[in-house]
Every structure is written in structure tokens, then in C-alpha cells.
Amino acid sequence: YFFPDISEKEYNDFTNNNQLFNNILELVQKAFYKWYNFDCKNIFVSNNYKKNFNSYAYIDGINPIFIHVDQLLESIIMSFMLTTFAWAKELDKNDSDDSCFIYLLFIMNELCIFGQLPNENAKSIIMKKIYNDHQLMNLAIDCHMAIMVFTIAHEIAHVYQANLNYSSFCKQNPKELEFNADEIAYDILLKFIMGKQEKNIVMEKYAYLSPMMYMDFFNLYYYTDYVLYGIKYNSKTHPTPEERKNALFSIVEREIYQFDTEEGNVIYQWFCMIYDLFIEKLPKYKKSGRLNEVIHNKLRKQL
After folding, report:
1. Which candidate, 70, 94, 127, 296, has a CA 20 to 30 Å from the CA of 177?
2. Dist CA 48 CA 68 (whole Å)
């Protein structure tokens, strides 16, 4: 999930063979057929690099429907999880080492805002933190996979909504479409967690709050953009990450979802500690001038 400075063609050639993504996609497609009686195997899904960490479903009623989950998003989420958990494990050590904060800022600034791919130098920073730490690697990978299940299922859910003509009921409130797609995606993920899976892909119980971490990730991205460049998040069609996260919490509390959540709760508590630390540190670093070299005001104005 880390790539050196390669051409877009080489990158896309590599990502076309992303077997993990294809396995997760197949798993989600089967889930929609099994639990929602919706056959989505003929929907075109792309996973190549478009220099923008996003995912979307293209449904205009005229052209063929397709779904895109950018490979950059996959790369960023994996980097984000590794960095966050590595930082959490260092909290009981001397707080003088800010490398995890700097790398998390790098993810938010260079990767999210400017769409760059992490190069080998960036890779080496975080890899030194997690070298031979199999527990941390497994935790990050499991949360990453849960987020990918949620993301793919969310976008397919939009196609499912169109198939039911559900979108016609939500034209006056497009945000309801997003809440509903989240509900479907989270339902699928939680059912996976309760039931275990095939194809050697197992959704671990402790990863059940990964979609909430996903929403927090976007919160940190918007927060970073605001602190560094004064850009405020504003969308008429999408609820805020905080609104989506609160809705997800209300879903998982339903009696239908029965499994032990203790480990997942502890993991999210540690995650939230890092979230709060980043929120606290960023404006202090900005005010002290320590971030002057990483701020690209001219570039940001061109976007």
C-alpha cells in the first residue's frame, strides 16, 4: 500500500491486479444478493488511481452505471491506520518523539489535500515504527479491510437505491440517501462480523467500529484543511462526518447485532486519544511556525 514515484500507467497496471480489493468486492456483491436480493455483479467497478482519494457511484440515468473506489483512498486509509495505531502504542513512552504526528500530518496534507502518492522516503518513516510488530500490522489491516467493505457496500447501496427508485423519494433531502447507504453498508459489515466469511477474508469483531474511524478520518482531513488553508467543509448533498458517525452508532446499538464488542471499544478509545491529540497539536504547531515548510498556500488556491 506504499508506492514509490512511478508513472500513472505503471500504478494502474499494478492496481488492476489488486486481488484483495477484488476479493472484498466479490464478497460484498454476494452479500447484496443474499441479504438484499440485489444482483450487482454486472456493475462496472474501477479501482485505479485518479489522483483523488474518493469513492463514488455514477448514476445519471443515461450512461452505464459504474462505481469508482480510488486506489489512493486504499493507500491513504492503510497508512492512516498504521500511523494512528503506532502512535497509540507510543503514548506511554517519552512524548518528545513527534514523528507519528508529523507523518499523520503528511497523510492529511500531502496525500489527502494534494493527492500525492507516498514515496519511499515517506514509507520508511512509518515502517521503522512498525517493523516486526505483527499485532499492529494485523490490527491496521483488519480495520482497513472493514473500511473497504463499508466503502464498496456504500457505493453499491446507491445503485441499489436507484434500482428501487428510492432516490426519487429523497430529492428534497439528498443527505437521506447518504444515511441510508451508510445503514445498508454497515448492516452488511456487521453481518459479516457476526457470521465469518469465505475466501479467507474474515471481518474481526474488534474492527466493528472501523466505519466510525473512517468518519473521524474525514473529520481530521477537513480540520487540517481548515487549520492550514482556511477551507471549511460545506456540502448540500452530504451530511458531515460527525452526523454520519452518530447515525452509525445508533445502528450498531440495535438488538439484531449481537457480538462481543469489548475489544473493539478499547481500540476505538485509543484511536480517539490520538484523534484528540492531533486536533490539539495541529494549531499549536501552526501558530509556532513549525509548519511553514509544509504549507502550500499557492497550490491550495489553484485547486
Report:
1. 70
2. 8
| Separation CA 6–CA 116 (nearest Å) | 11
Return the amino acid letter for 243.
E
pLDDT of 267 over the 90 cut = yes
Residues 6+ apart with CB under 8 A from 200: 23
Averaged pLDDT, 256-274: 93
Are 15 and 71 in contact by the 8 Å Cβ rule? The answer is: yes
**DSSP per position, 99-155:** HHHHHHHHIIIIIIIT-PPP-HHHHHHHHHHHTT-HHHHHHHHHHHHHHHHHHHHHH
Amino acid, res. 4: P
| CB neighbour class for 116 (10 Å; exposed up to 12, middle 13-18, buried from 19) | middle
pLDDT for res 123: 58
CA distance 117 to 128: 19
The structure's pTM equals 0.89
Nearest to 78 by CA among 212, 204, 217, 242: 217
- Of 40, 92, 36, the C-alpha closest to 67 is 40
- The set of cell numbers assigned to 210 is 472501523
Q: How many residues does the chain have?
A: 303
Of 96, 103, 56, give the one whose Cα is nearest residue 78: 103
- Tens-digit pLDDT profile for residues 194-236: 985 555 567 899 999 999 999 999 999 999 999 999 999 888 8
292's grid cell = 511553514
**44-58 pLDDT, tens per residue?**
999 888 778 889 998
Q: Which three cell numbers stand for residue 87?
A: 502512535
